[in-house]
Amino acid sequence: MGKLLFLALIALAGYWYANTYGVWVGVPPFTPVGVWNYTGERAYEIKVLGLEDGIRIQVSGDLSEGQLRVWIGQEGRPLTKVRVYEGRFEALVKEKLEPGVYFVHFALRRAKGWVRLDWLSVRFAPSPL
Known about the structure:
By secondary structure, the protein is an alpha+beta fold. Helix content is about 15%, strand content about 60%. It has a single domain (about 1-120), classed as Jelly Rolls, CATH 2.60.120.380.
């Protein structure tokens, strides 16, 4: 009985912490990320070399509350428009960029639900002549 009471106390403390401070569980791009009342921003570095000429970002998820904002930046400034996703969503974003080092930004605001984030540098098909 004491162990069950201890586990119930731990669960209650976890619920209180998630509602008060927010929780992010998961490691993108390998697993879906579960969020509960989470507000924060994550930036991931990606290099576009001469072999690639852009960045592909794929996002999907189901947020019962809050929103996800996605953009690509360089040296602290956004280079692309900020895309905002709410509710149930699935999107593929392709941006052509010059070779260099960029940051893919994912910002969540008071989000509850799950999201899947994936990004990589890609080579786009050549344009027809």
